[in-house]
Write a structure and sequence with these properties.
430 residues; alpha/beta; Rossmann fold; 6-stranded parallel β-sheet; 15 helices; 16 strands
Length: 430
């Protein structure tokens, strides 16, 4: 297939199946940079699209980057992929610069999907747009008067670098996004020229892509909503639809019999794994890091005793969590809804999390885990020491397990919340 040709998968019209009544069936267009799972946002976008399709809703997926998740094709979803690079890996940097700011091919592709659809019964659900699609897709939906809902998986709606984080100083950023101080700040991990490009993209997004029409948002945590609320329209409707957690219930882990502390994620400075390595070295406790990334050598230098497994399949991650005394989530930035904390709780494993991170909403301090002062090595060390008490760890692990399974974050719960959100938006638009 030519690089310049869109990729179609599945039938042109989605057959409507399932036990749901005709009145409750919806037409949903899921918009995400990637047509396959390569991270948390893509996993939620594509798995929810699959779940909606199985419930009988008409589902179309627009993405820029192939390959296509095969299960979507098998379920009969309509899929349109523009067959483009994500802007970070595009060998043509000039093309990437233009595509990241405004992607006309993606806008045209969405217009193709919208053709013949009824705005009164169709929802355009935007998950990820900053890696390949650009905000042009949002403008295309708004121009044709289709209701749009955006899931705030990160902070790219407001912040040029997507995190309200200064990657040069490795600390959170409290500057007003796009203020003079923000524009002048050298905060981007890839250098100041990249920051200027991201700033230009943000201006275009604010003034043209999202301007004057996106009123519906899905937030994933109180903290992320609090950070982003000043940048949302005053009259915005904000829905809470927690991401699903793919864990099957089984007996809780015997954390009191376990010794090691486990952390999961990309090994990059903002994730705080260097902090954990330093605290563990002072305490002499065992740590296993599941993941990989640019900070691997730095972490090993800080604490040669830390075991780094690299990326592992989900089943292996869960087995290593089951063998943990606690999950440690030491992130230095805000985060949105850290699924590792929920996965650990579902297994009966308590968590140690920062007190200025969205993870703290998932842990009751002293009950289902512990909070430590964000960025404080000494305080993290104290909480690791506290968790070495077998009885305390067992008590918190059981409480985490009981609390999680009293109202688990299942895909069915996620889909119920999505359907309720969509119907509310359609009623408001009518």
């Amino acid at each position: 297939m030519s690089e310049n040709m869109p990729m179609y998968c599945g039938p042109a019209e989605c057959a409507v199946r399932g036990a749901a009544s005709q009145a409750a069936l919806l037409d949903v267009i899921v918009v995400n940079d990637f047509a396959h799972v390569n991270g948390g946002a893509a996993k939620v976008a594509l798995h929810s699209a699959l779940g909606l399709r199985k419930r009988g809703h008409a589902v179309a997926v627009l993405a820029a980057v192939a390959p296509v998740a095969p299960e979507l094709q098998a379920e009969g979803a309509q899929i349109l992929v523009t067959n483009q690079h994500d802007i970070k890996s595009d060998p043509s940097r000039l093309r990437a610069i233009g595509q990241g700011i405004w992607n006309p091919r993606a806008a045209d592709a969405l217009e193709t999907l919208l053709a013949g659809r009824d705005p009164a019964g169709t929802i355009v659900h935007v998950h990820g747009w900053s890696k390949a699609l650009s905000s042009s897709v949002v403008r295309a939906a708004l121009a044709h008067h289709f209701p749009v809902v955006v899931t705030l998986h990160d902070y790219f709606y407001a912040c040029p670098n997507g995190g309200f984080f200064d990657f040069q100083r490795n600390c959170r950023c409290d500057l007003r996004a796009l203020s003079a101080s923000c524009i002048g700040a050298h905060c981007d991990r890839d250098g100041y020229p990249q920051k200027l490009w991201r700033t230009a993209r943000q201006v275009i997004q604010n003034r043209y892509g999202f301007a004057g029409g996106v009123d519906n948002f899905i937030s994933l945590s109180d903290l992320s909503e609090q950070v982003l609320r000043p940048y949302l329209p005053l009259h915005a409707s904000i829905y809470r639809v927690p991401n699903p957690v793919a864990v099957t219930q089984s007996p809780p882990a015997d954390v009191g019999a376990n010794r090691c502390f486990v952390a999961v994620g990309r090994l990059s400075p903002e994730k705080g794994f260097g902090l954990l390595a330093a605290a563990a070295r002072q305490l002499g406790c065992e740590v296993v890091l599941i993941g990989d990334g640019p900070s691997r050598a730095e972490i090993t230098a800080a604490n040669p005793q830390v075991r780094i497994t690299g990326w592992q399949p989900a089943a292996e991650v869960f087995e290593r969590l089951r063998a943990a005394r606690a999950l440690v989530f030491p992130s230095l930035w805000y985060e949105v809804q850290p699924l590792a904390v929920l996965e650990a709780a579902a297994l009966g494993v308590p968590a140690i999390v920062p007190d200025r991170c969205a993870a703290r909403e998932l842990v009751e301090d002293g009950v289902t885990g512990l909070w430590f002062r964000s960025g404080d090595v000494a305080d993290l060390g104290r909480k690791l020491a506290q968790m070495q008490d077998c009885q305390a760890a067992t008590r918190m692990g059981k409480a985490a397990y009981d609390r999680y399974w009293s109202n688990p974050y299942t895909m069915e719960r996620h889909l119920d919340s999505l359907e309720s959100c969509y119907l509310s938006i359609l009623r408001s638009a009518s």
